[in-house]
Amino acid sequence: MVKGDKINFSTPSGFPEFLPSEKRLELYLLDIIRRVFESYGFTPIETPAVERLEVLQAKGNQGDNIIYGIDPILPPNRQAERDKSGETGSEARALKFDQTVPLAAYIARHLNELTFPFARYQMDVVFRGERAKDGRFRQFRQCDIDVVARRELSLLYDAQMPAIITEIFEAINIGNFLIRINNRKVLTGFFKSVEIAEDKIKSCISIVDNLEKIGENKVKQDLEKEGILAEQAQKIIEFIKIDGSVDEILDKLKHLAENLSETDQLNLGVTELETVIAGVRNLGVAENRFCIDLSIARGLDYYTGTVYETTLLGHEALGSICSGGRYEELVGVFLGEKMPGVGISIGLTRLISRLLKAGILSTLAVTPAQLMVVNMQDDLMPTYLKVSQHLRQAGINVITNFDKRPLGKQFQLADKQGIQFCVIIGSEEAATQKSSLKDLKTGEQVEVLLVNLAEEVKRRLG
Fold it and tell me: Is 155:117 a contact under the CB 8 Å cutoff?
């Protein structure tokens, strides 16, 4: 660039940048999520941000995800080298758009080093080249768990997922939420029983999955555009609108199957759904936290069984805040064997953005410091440093103010950063091994012996 040209240093569209208070909130939520994941025995892994393009496209470009390719930018004197050895075919690379496809490649690469069922969690950043808009990002953090087995995977792993979702969102305390559960075999089986052609079933499932976004009439129109008869489309609408309690819906599905033909897959889906629901109950998940919703399909083609979507009640416009499901063939695509798995994903960046905007969450204080040791006079700095270290060793987060300035200015600085307590030590206090502890929230100021200071601060912090 020419000297003097202005550089556009604004944040690229769709790529989030956090202020300290926002980043602290993200880390706080990550700690909660990590703690719950690990309480169920999930172990952390990390996969590269960059994968081979053919890996990411192994099961097709799932949904409407737009993949970011990686193309090296070389200086002009090496351009010919780039043209000569351009990365194509198996060498072409791209940024991962989710965690599930890279997990499949990870398992294939480390098959003999892993123990199965393999339960892992990842809380990495992923990239999608979609249009940036409110609550949608091109770079965002996903918090995923998956359990993968060789040949067979118990449906009780499916049942664990709603229990994990419940613990996370109750710990975050975001309000009332509902985990909506379905099984793709139920949908597929019903479509077969009403004589939907095999090659139309996947597209019909994708259309049904958009019911909340586009409405009942548009679903009918889109089904008919796929060549589905109006009578069949009406039956599909009536089916996905079956409601009632969990047990009532299961009974209705069993009764419906008795009056339809070719219901083997429908019956299998209902049986699996029943097993999962029983497991969810045995894990102690409250009845008001989950339901069966036959319109839930999950748009990604690799889901084959149980599917989940979680909705924040009263804020349904936020969309699903946690989703996932079971897949049978995704991992095995790299190994040529059946490796069933089940998992869920929380799009944390999007979730934080939406919950902050809705006023459901608030950012944390700018600093993790709980206390400031103010600077009354520079010659007492050795005392301030020793007191600060003593407090830190007691588990208190401390900022030591190295710059001497008026006491009121130091209080303002602490308050601006969300620090509640200030320790004041002048020459008289230092001589008598005392301090003054000021609570900036209440204005109260008490005298405390230095030897008792850490205990008193911890007591007041609760």
Answer: no
